[in-house]
Amino acid sequence: MDVLDTMVRAVRRDGVVLDLQVIRPDPLVEARGRVVCPIDGEPLFRTADAATAAIDALVRTGRLVEDAVDDHEVRKHYVDGPELVADIAGSRRSLPAEAVPRLSALAGPCAVVERCRLRRLVVV
Known about the structure:
Radius of gyration: 18 Å
Largest sheet: 4 strands, antiparallel
Strand content: 35-45%
Structural class: alpha+beta
Shape: elongated
Strand order of the largest sheet: 2-1-4-3
Number of helices: 4
Mean pLDDT: 95
Distance between the termini: 18 Å
Order of helices and strands: HEEHEHHE
């Protein structure tokens, strides 16, 4: 929590801290307006959960006040399936093994859709 404490101390009183989190459920791969498969987001959620818990602790102690919350979808677009497969392979997330051949053969655009939460926090 040292990095978080340092960040909060660097913000003046009544200053704003924005916290962007990935939230459950697992992200989905979409192509042609249909869901192709889910992506296992659990490895990333474990890290996100720890970061959320650290910020929530600062809210409980009164160092930060939650001013606003916005849950929304974020879409990351890909030219084709192979680009998506390569991107996911380089991340902490994973595709279902049975979906990889189908995605690797996908010639058209596709997207990863995930839920995110943006919190506006005020330093007190």
